[in-house]
Design brief:
Blueprint (H helix, E strand, L loop, with lengths): L2 H16 L52 E5 L2 E4 H15 L6 H27 L6 H15 L4 H10 L4 H21 L8 H10 L1 H4 L4 E9 L6 H20 L4 H8 L3 H4 L4 E6 L5 H8 L10 E2 L4 E9 L4 H34 L2 E3 L2
């Protein structure tokens, strides 16, 4: 198998096992699979000893780069090795194609990857405390799905593909089980503790109706009165008086279209009874559109001043969020609010378990 093919296979296993996130367990292409066993974690602190949640980092030894499997962090009594951290960095670079070009960027990436590993360890520890387990039947179902994604015809072929990449089938199963445990503890501690009510959706809909209605169409007519060029404010006053006179005739019941043909200074629309055509929300100047859309169909506006003159508007029709469109909008709002609440609850829970943990940085 070529080097490029191995990278593709590793990425396929990676994505199949973890969705969009990048776990830190798939070995680097070309790295020996018989890595030195990690050094044992340090003993837990005495019960009476009090530590800060995050301890200060000791100085990095000069030969740190040559010690592949040294412990870089201890989460409670669980060790994280440099080998795990380098795996996470390599796959992040592979997926994002963003290679750190400066020392500051490399340090920032390493900090980010280590934070992700710590977060996962904390969740696994919480799952263990709550005695969550992944049944063999669920594991088999997930492994079968991975085999399909990779194009393996059977389990033996899948294991050959895994071994060709320097992985062990047992290691793949272990990491998959961990991923499923993380998702299960999240469901218990996050998903099942949030809900989106109809009242929540109503509030969001009312606060964001204009934005949600962007793109809906409406039809309107207008009569335009342009100030006499060079007349200054007197010209504007004359245009306003003309608009008021015609508005009074509209309100008295005269036909809006006939008045537009006779009085409108917008010659392009006057010959068509003042019709502006079918418009989408967002196409007109905001102040003009707002003046039109505040009307009900068949209703007329009093004289409205814009940058070009005074207008009389008639709203003929407008689409609104109703029926199927409203149902779709409410479903979209439900998804938006659920994601917002999920992120808030997840961050709260992670902060909670992090505050109770003893995390010793050795990097």
């Amino acid at each position: 198998m070529s080097g490029a093919a191995r990278v593709v296979l590793a990425a396929a296993v990676l994505l199949a096992l973890s969705g969009c996130s990048a776990p830190s367990w798939v070995p680097l292409v070309g790295k020996a699979s018989t890595a030195k066993a990690p050094e044992p974690p340090p003993p837990a602190p005495p019960a009476h000893e009090v530590r800060a949640p995050i301890l200060s980092r000791p100085a990095t030894p000069t030969d740190a780069d040559s010690i592949v499997d040294r412990v870089v962090c201890v989460v409670n009594s669980d060790a994280i090795t440099l080998y795990e951290l380098e795996e996470a960095e390599a796959y992040y670079v592979y997926e994002t194609k963003q290679v750190p070009s400066t020392n500051e960027e490399r340090v920032a990436l390493r900090d980010k990857m280590l934070a992700n590993i710590i977060e996962k360890r904390l969740q696994l520890q919480q799952a263990e405390r709550e005695k969550l387990v992944i049944e063999d039947a669920e594991m088999k179902e997930q492994l079968d799905e991975i085999q399909k994604r990779l194009g393996a015809k059977n389990e033996a072929e899948f294991e050959q593909m895994v071994k060709a990449q320097g992985l062990s089938p047992e290691g793949v199963k272990k990491r998959l089980r961990e991923q499923l445990l993380v998702e299960r503890i999240k469901r218990r501690k996050v998903n099942l503790r949030i809900s989106v009510t109809e009242e929540d959706i109503d509030q969001y809909l009312n606060a964001n109706r204009e934005k949600l209605e962007t793109g809906l169409t409406f039809e309107a007519r207008h009569i335009l009165f342009v100030p006499t060029a060079g007349a200054g404010e007197d010209g504007w006053q004359t245009a306003r008086r003309r608009a008021e006179d015609v508005y009074a005739r509209v309100m008295a019941g005269e036909d809006f279209g006939e008045l537009a043909r006779e009085f409108s200074d917008d010659t392009a629309t006057a010959k068509n009874d003042g019709r502006l055509g079918v418009l989408k929300r967002g196409e007109l100047a905001p102040d003009i559109e707002k003046a039109i859309l505040r009307l009900s169909p068949g209703e007329h506006s009093p004289p409205f001043r814009s940058e070009v003159g005074y207008h009389l508007f008639e709203l003929e029709s407008k689409e609104t969020l109703a029926g199927e469109q409203l149902a779709q909008a409410r479903n979209q709002i439900r998804d938006i609010l659920y994601k917002q609440k999920y992120e808030i609850r997840l961050n709260e829970w992670l902060a909670e378990i992090r505050s109770r943990a003893i995390i010793e940085m050795r990097l």
